[in-house]
Inverse folding.
């Protein structure tokens, strides 16, 4: 019995050493905001104060376009996810994109609220602040969910809508990025705030791409480094934990059928996070929509193949 107890103590000690060693090895401090601003802003970048948040955004293209295209990114991403689309559209169209609260250079909401209703109100406050009275709203994943919630809440402010692998209905994912899983787990999520291996971010990005070879080192660096902006990891944990506890705010999904605006639905056929059957639900419920499915693309088709997907957007905008 004493021998067994001794063995168990050694095993426990071994695991403690492994945990402490791994924590020390993978510990990541926050990256100072000024360092991130220097690297991830350009001449088009601006900041505006919305409810105490310094919101990073870019307003590009035709300044006389009174109904601009407003693009909202997904969970864990930033306004940079739209780089390819903006490059192709800004010669003819005014395009506005921003880092949503909890992500990119904008950082966390001081109130810790990341509900769909909060985000819809936030987008309205942002657009009001910069003088946009009406827009074409578009978004990917979380951004897509915010887009249709915004359209439901402020229908007079939306002329058209673009949903890219958008959230909105109860569904069962076929595959979930590991970062999403860890951030929602008890105990583990507390470590995730400090222990954030770059490899987990890389695996998470690869998870939402169909062609893993397109996940470059530069792309992973951007996702990884912006996740280390002060407060972003805690905000990510708060969002994932709330989602795990409450699920979708599904009551509002019943209102999708009420949206009469022209809508373009873009979906990657190999999206295993928000599967294709969700696209079909949007297609069924929206009375004035066009559904375009891209083979060999995943959850972020606008990032994985900007050229092919933006061609459809150009047609829709015309």
């Amino acid at each position: 019995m004493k021998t067994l107890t001794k063995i168990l103590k050694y095993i426990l000690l071994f695991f403690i050493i492994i945990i402490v060693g791994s924590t020390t090895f993978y510990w990541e401090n926050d990256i100072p905001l000024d360092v991130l601003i220097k690297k991830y802003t350009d001449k088009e970048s601006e900041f505006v104060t919305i409810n105490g948040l310094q919101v990073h955004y870019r307003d590009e293209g035709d300044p006389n376009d009174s109904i601009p295209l407003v693009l909202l990114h997904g969970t864990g991403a930033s306004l940079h996810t739209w780089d390819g689309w903006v490059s192709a559209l800004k010669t003819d169209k005014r395009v506005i994109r921003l880092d949503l609260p909890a992500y990119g250079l904008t950082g966390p909401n001081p109130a810790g609220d990341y509900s769909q209703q909060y985000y819809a109100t936030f987008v309205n406050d942002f657009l009001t602040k910069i003088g946009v009275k009406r827009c074409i709203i578009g978004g990917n994943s979380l951004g897509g969910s915010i887009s249709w919630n915004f359209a439901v809440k402020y229908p007079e402010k939306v002329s058209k809508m673009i949903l890219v692998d958008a959230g909105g209905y109860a569904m069962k994912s076929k595959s979930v990025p590991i970062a999403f899983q860890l951030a929602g787990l008890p105990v583990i999520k507390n470590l995730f705030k400090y222990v954030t291996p770059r490899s987990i971010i890389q695996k998470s990005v690869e998870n939402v791409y169909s062609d893993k070879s397109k996940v470059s080192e530069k792309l992973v660096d951007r996702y990884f480094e912006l996740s280390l902006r002060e407060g972003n990891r805690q905000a990510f944990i708060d969002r994932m934990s709330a989602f795990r506890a409450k699920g979708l705010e599904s009551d509002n999904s019943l209102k999708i059928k009420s949206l009469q605006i022209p809508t373009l639905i873009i979906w990657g056929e190999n999206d295993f996070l928000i599967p294709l059957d969700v696209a079909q639900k949007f297609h069924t419920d929206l009375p004035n929509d066009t559904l375009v499915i891209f083979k060999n693309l995943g959850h972020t088709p606008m990032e994985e193949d900007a050229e092919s997907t933006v061609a459809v957007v150009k047609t829709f905008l015309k």
Notes: Confidence is low (pLDDT under 50) at residues 8-25. Strands lie at 45-50, 53-60, 69-72, 95-98, 135-140, 158-164, 263-268, 289-294. The chain has 13 helices and eight strands. The radius of gyration is 21 Å.
